[in-house]
Design goal:
Helix content is 60%, strand content 17%. The protein is built from five helices and five strands, in the order H-E-E-E-H-H-H-E-E-H. The chain has a three-stranded antiparallel sheet with strand order 3-4-5. A two-stranded antiparallel sheet has the order 1-2. The N terminus is likely disordered.
Length: 139
């Protein structure tokens, strides 16, 4: 199960690193209040398309790995159960994607340790300014 958690974290972090600006730091954590394990690039503002890619990547990458494990390992039931557990954890990401797709006014998303902050057309300049300030303070 620890290996599964490591793979899940890697599956979450890699897309964030690839789609974030250079120097963005991806951190991991758990929020007991919302019962979620997360990877977070605090302060990074993504376009709606990039954020949807970040949200869906763990579903695609990790589920593919579990499917291959199901097919080629000697423990198909274990892989099946782990995939089910992983996919149940992806529900929040799917909800973010659903929200973005339903609301065409959302043009950018900021990743946070407590979830996501959505920005409309007028809010983007402010979001970028806040993200730059946060990066300068954290650097």
């Amino acid at each position: 199960m620890i290996t599964s958690l490591k793979h899940t974290c890697a599956g979450m972090a890699r897309p964030m690193e690839l789609l974030a600006p250079a120097g963005a730091k991806v951190t991991f954590g758990a929020n007991r209040e919302t019962a979620m394990i997360y990877a977070c690039a605090e302060g990074v503002v993504y376009s709606r398309r990039r954020y949807m890619a970040v949200c869906l990547a763990p579903t695609v990458v990790v589920t593919t790995a579990f499917t291959l494990g199901f097919v080629f390992s000697g423990y198909p039931l274990l892989c099946y159960l782990a995939a089910g557990l992983h996919l149940s954890g992806c529900v929040g990401d799917w909800y973010y994607v659903r929200t973005i797709l339903r609301d065409r006014c959302i043009v950018a998303c900021e990743d946070t340790s407590f979830g996501v902050r959505f920005f409309g057309r007028g809010d983007v300049d402010e979001a970028v300014a806040v993200a730059r300030l946060l990066c300068a303070v954290l650097a």
